[in-house]
Amino acid sequence: MSSKLETVWRSAGMLQAQVIRGKLESAGVPVFLKYEAIGQIFGLTVDGLGLVEVQVPTDWVEEATLLLSENITDEEQE
Predict the structure, then answer these.
(1) How many domains is the chain partitioned into structurally?
(2) What is the mean pLDDT of residues 21-47?
């Protein structure tokens, strides 16, 4: 497994990043969140302070990108 990380999603806040993280982890993809601590402490979303990057190891980028491109599952269509 590669030790390099690549960003597969950028979120303006932690909530959306956690949802994306849950989707990827439930499929077995290792996920890391990169963010500035000050944005989390003060809840700032100005000038990128609230930006959260969802990162995965390089070996998992293709699978993560595919999972994130799926908007509607079979269950949601019913």
Answers:
(1) 1
(2) 78
